[in-house]
Structure formats: C-alpha cells, structure tokens
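Let's see one such:

===
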Amino acid sequence: MSLRYWLIIFALAAGWGASFFFNEILLRELGPLSVAMGRVGMGAIGCWLWVIGTNGPKHLPKQSFMILAVFAAFQYAIPLAVYPVTQQYITSSAAGIVNALTPVMVVIVSHFWPRGERMTPLRSIGVLLGFVGIVLLALPSFEGQGESDPYALFATMAAPLCYAFALNLVRYLDGMDRVLLTTWSLTIGTIMLVPLSLAFEGVPEITRAETWASLFIIGFALTSAAFILLFWLIPRVGGTTASTITFIAPVSSVMLGVLILNEELFPIQYAGMAVIFSGLLFVDGRIFKRKAAAP
C-alpha cells in the first residue's frame, strides 16, 4: 500500500481522536446537546455542499427512509450526544480510550444479530480484554483519584455500543451511495437533535472565537470531510486496513488531553489502554493469522 494512503489513515485517526479535545473546548460555552447539534448539523451542511458541488446523487429512496432513520440515530444523533454529555464528568483522553471499544462492541452485537458473524475464541478473548481495560481505566476514580467519574466512564460505553448497532444496520443499506447515505443520515440526525437541544438548553449563544473555530473543525473537517474521505479510501485499501484507524485514534486523544488540557492519567490507566489495544488485536485477528501462516 502506498505511503499516501497510510498518511490519510493517520490523518483521519488523529482527527477523530482530536474530536474529544474539541468537545472539551465547546463545552466551555455550549451545553452538550448544543455541541452534538452543532457538529451533526455542520456535518450535514458540509456533505450537502459536496453533493451539490460534485453533482452527486441527491434523492433518498423512499423505501430506505425508516432503516436510514434508525441508522442515523445510532450512528450520529445518540453517540455524538453521549460523548459531550459524559465529557462533563470524564476527561477527553478517557473518552477517546472508551471510543476504541467500538470493534469490541461490534463483535458482541454481531454475534447476536440475525445472520451476523459469530464470536470466535480469539474475538472472545478480545472482548474480555476490552472490558478488563475499561475496569483498569476506571479503577483510580473508584479509589477517589483521577478526574473522571467512574460511572460516567461506563455510561460512555453507550456510544461505541451505538456504533456497533449502526455497523450492523448499514448492511441493509448496501445499495445506497455512501456519500449520500452519510449526507441524509447527518441531516436526519440533525432533525432529531434540534428539538431536544432547544428544549433542554435553549438557543445556543456563541461569543468566543475558539468556540466557532472548534465547531467548524469538528463539524466540517472531522465529520463531513472525514467521512467523505473515508468512503473514498475504503475501496482503495479495503475495510480491514481502514479499520486500523481504531488503533491510532486514542493516541491523539490522549496526547492532546494530557499535553494541552493538562489531564492526568495514572500508570494503571495507561495499562488499561494497553489492555484495550491488546483486545483489539485479538478482535482484529490478522496478526495471529500471519503467525499461523508463517513456516
């Protein structure tokens, strides 16, 4: 695989890891539902600008609307609200580490999904390691140390669980153009979030330049542009290679949280992150297949 594709993978991973950092900036002035509404709404606008500018397909097949609405809720509306809500009580670095559990949740949901992939022994070990890692991550908080509320840490796991449902739902939308799928999903997600945000938090008022900058970055760059780029990349490198983003993204969230926001991670929490990464290796399975194939 060429170097430029690897550079794109690293850029996407670093960007999505940084989204938790930008959530922290936005939460200084906005409520969590306003953060979610702003990100999903700007993401939708960015996608529509791309669709119109490239003269891409625009019409949503009527028969796909119901499943697309459910997909939009699980892929965008719910998880992108969960993170800012729980980041009021946990650090951005912890949120980034919890997000790395997405492949673990996919394995669990797929196992019980109709005609889904059944859990293998390797993946079962990966799931177990993933949950052990989360316990290690929460342990200092239960002992009265650290900056994250342990119960909020576990609540944050609802976001990767939602992604797992979304990744199983998307198989029912295989015939739909992926950019159009993202555009309509973000649009429907915005429609879901607007009344909730206005009802609970009122009309958002933004007075700081850093809030506007963070909103533009997280909405246009890390949502619409990033997903359009991802769908361009997958046919060229394959879904398995693109999934390595999951391994890299938490690194940038931890680096930004610790180095810029002065968040504290204890040694046992770094150990928890290492255990989660080990679990991802078992879920992914490629490294073990290569060893088995080696003479």
